[in-house]
Amino acid sequence: MKQTLVIDARIPQKLLPNKRSGWYDMYRKEVKDYFALVWIRCKEQKIQPVKGHATITFTFHLATRRKRDGDNFLAAAKKVIDVLTKDCKLFVDDSSEYVSHAPVQFVIDKEEKTVIEIEETG
Fold it and tell me: How confident is the model over 25-37, as pLDDT tens digits?
């Protein structure tokens, strides 16, 4: 079963490893608001828990054509996976036994958003 979670906001710059200046960036209002938005959209879109293993694909819709490093965005998405695991309770655990990641994708779009596809694979 494949589920799609759409977060109608761009991932905060403070979550990107190259932009972070300290541990306290994780507790800034913009970051906390984004995590709350992930939880809200998960509940609104009625995303169901995954019983076994799942593959997660992140697609970032961004307005500019700048070069981006997919690994940095995947590192930033780690905290989003934590929210999906701990707060939304979609996965038993976020270890490799239960969750794997597909390569990050970028789409140039006027409307900035994050699309997370969750596919149950086992």
Answer: 556 788 889 999 9
